[in-house]
Amino acid sequence: MWQYGMRLYQVDAFTNKCFQGNPAAVCLLDAPQDDTWMQAFASEMNLSETAFLEPNDDYYRLRWFTPSIEVDLCGHATLASAHVLWETGAAKRGNVIEFDTRSGLLTASYVDHWIQLNFPATPAKETTCNIDLERALGARPTFVGKSAFDFLAEVPSETLVRELNPNFSLIELAAARGVIVTAKSTSTDYDFVSRFFSPQSGVAEDPVTGSAHCCLGPYWGHRIGKDELVGHQASNRGGLVRVKLLDDRVILGGQAVTVFHGQVP
C-alpha cells in the first residue's frame, strides 16, 4: 500500500561535493513496505542503491535494493542513511547508530566530520574465475581471488585500472555479485585504486563501492603492511574510502552531502 508523505533524500556518498561520489536514495519509512513495492521504488529511482530505513526502538531496520535486486551488503547507501539521520536530527551526532541488516548488525559513528561504518571484513582467497578475466577486462590480472561477494583482480598499474573498457557482457557471466579491479596507487594521497563492475546486479559500473573495500582493505593491508589505508575508486565520479582493519571487521570512513530531499509522492 502506498504511504503518502514518506521522506526521501538523495545523497552523494564518499565525497564532500555534490555530483561526485556515489549517489544513493534514502527512503524513511513510516510503516513496513512489502518487497515488491521496495523493488519497484528502487527501479523508479534508478540509482545503484536505494536504502529503506524503518525505525525500531533503539535501532533501524535497513535494506538495500539496486534497480533489479536486493543486496546483502552496501556501504555507500549505509553511509548515506547515517548522514540523513544525523542531518535531520533523527539521531544525535554523538550517538552510535545501529542498523539491523541482512549482514547482521552494522554501526555508524560520527568522528571529526567523517562517518565511520563498522562492517564485516570479506578477504579474498586466491582462486580462478569462471570467465576469462583478461578478455573481459582487456588486461591480464596478476592476482585473482574471490571474497564472500565478488571476484578481485589486481592488475599491474593504476593507469590500467583507470583506462579499462570492460566487456560487460562477459563480466555479467562471472559467478559473483561483481568484479573488483585494483592496483597499487602511484599517488601519495591514497594507497590503492579500484573500479567495480556489477552488471549481474543491475549496475554496470558502481561509482564508489563501500562493501568492495571490505575486501580491498584486507588485501592491500596485507600487501602493503598497513592497518589504515585510503582507497580511491577511479570511476568517472570518483570517491575516497578510508579503511581501518580490526581483526574480522573493517572500519570504512567517508563523507556525504545531501543533493535534494522531498516527500513521496
Helix/strand layout:
Layout: E1 6-13, E2 22-28, H1 35-45, E3 49-56, E4 59-65, E5 70-71, H2 75-87, E6 97-101, E7 104-111, E8 114-120, E9 125-126, H3 133-137, E10 143-146, E11 151-154, H4 158-163, H5 168-171, E12 179-184, E13 192-198, E14 203-206, H6 213-224, E15 228-233, E16 239-246, E17 249-254, E18 256-264
Parallel strand pairs: 2-3, 4-6, 11-12, 13-15
Antiparallel strand pairs: 1-2, 1-18, 3-4, 4-5, 6-7, 7-8, 8-17, 9-10, 10-11, 12-13, 13-14, 15-16, 16-17
Please describe the structure with a list of short key phrases separated by commas or semicolons.
single chain; 265 residues; alpha+beta; 18-stranded mixed β-sheet
In short:
The protein has 265 residues and is an alpha+beta fold. It has helices spanning 35-45, 75-87, 133-137, 158-163, 168-171, 213-224, and strands at 6-13, 22-28, 49-56, 59-65, 70-71, 97-101, 104-111, 114-120, 125-126, 143-146, 151-154, 179-184, 192-198, 203-206, 228-233, 239-246, 249-254, 256-264.
Structure description:
The radius of gyration is 18 Å and the shape is globular. It contains 6 helices and 18 strands. It has an 18-stranded mixed β-sheet that branches. It is an alpha+beta fold and 265 residues long. Helix content is 19%, strand content 41%. The two termini are 13 Å apart. A hairpin with a 2-residue loop joins strand 7 and strand 8. The longest helix has 13 residues, at 75-87.
